[in-house]
Write a structure and sequence with these properties.
Low-confidence stretches: none
CATH architecture of the largest domain: 3-Layer(aba) Sandwich
CATH topology of the largest domain: Rossmann fold
Strand order of the largest sheet: 2-1-3-4
Number of helices: 10
CATH class of the largest domain: Alpha Beta
Largest sheet: 4 strands, parallel
Radius of gyration: 24 Å
Strand content: 5-15%
Length: 274
């Protein structure tokens, strides 16, 4: 690991934005050994200087930062250059460009994206709703959902729902256990709710279900992991989705983020056509 880069992620807020950007960045490089060093809520000159002092302990360093205070960002840039450390401001150029385009000065207030406004409380409400409507619960007011996900066991319904909830969508998810799993009012869908079926390759589901059973130390439910049984489940779910003309997403090779992006796209189209 001597060839590893020390990646310094310096933020004046939680560092969440920076983490996501670095995640996307590093995914583009196959041979990239690194160790991340997180520095959140960096808002004083003293903090900057301490971080730069810490840099002296390492050799191969790259600094990525999101700091909206011009004075602090210049201090970091200047001292990094002095010590021959590559240093990149992730938001700086974008903020400047938007400032020119919008013909107004940026507020340069750290953590402003986390302000507790109406949008924030809407997201909290969506998370609470989604958790209450997980796994077929609270079907009595399912009509209040923005999105309804349906699928057989282990088709990523819950993680996708929670991810969408964090974006402000009220999501219900229903597992297909038998023919009576789906409520009649959804089959009629007079309210034109966005109902989406999630499917996956049977072989993939076998693998996921076996891992699930192993984690629970449960080895007796052989039907749950039987390939032919799962194949029948998936085919029946596909026929159901086709019957009611519900769009489907194959999650076999999709991450939760990719599945959620597909769900949002379908949701936006459904709203336009409502």
């Amino acid at each position: 690991m001597n060839n590893s880069y020390q990646i310094y992620l310096i933020s004046d807020s939680t560092g969440e934005t920076l983490d996501r950007i670095f995640l996307a960045l590093k995914a583009q490089f196959k041979n990239f050994n690194y160790k991340t060093n997180h520095f959140s809520f960096t808002r004083t000159e003293n903090q900057i200087l301490k971080i730069l002092e810490n840099c002296k302990k390492h050799k191969k360093i790259i600094i990525l930062y999101t700091i909206v205070d011009d004075k602090l960002s210049r201090l970091l840039e200047k001292n990094s250059k002095k010590n021959n450390i590559p240093c990149f401001g992730v938001l700086g150029d974008l903020i400047d460009s938007f400032s020119k385009l919008l013909n107004q000065n940026a507020l340069n207030v750290p953590s402003r994206q986390h302000i507790m406004n109406d949008e924030y409380y809407k997201k909290i409400d969506a998370i609470q709703f989604t958790m209450n409507h997980d796994d077929g619960n609270a079907l009595s007011d399912i009509e209040k959902s923005d999105i309804i996900l349906i699928g057989v066991s282990r088709t990523s319904k819950t993680p996708t729902s929670i991810y969408l909830a964090n974006k402000g969508y009220k999501v219900s998810n229903i597992p297909i256990v038998n023919k009576n799993s789906i409520p009649d009012n959804l089959k009629k869908n007079k309210s034109n709710k966005c109902i989406i079926g999630l499917v996956a390759e049977p072989e993939r589901l076998v693998e996921i279900r076996k891992n699930r059973m192993a984690s629970l130390k449960e080895n007796h439910n052989h039907k749950y992991t039987n390939l032919q049984k799962i194949y029948d489940e998936v085919e029946e779910s596909k026929n159901t989705f086709l019957k009611f003309k519900w769009p489907t997403i194959d999650v076999s090779r999709k991450s939760v983020e990719e599945t959620a992006a597909s769900v949002i796209k379908i949701y936006e189209i459904s709203r336009k056509n409502a």
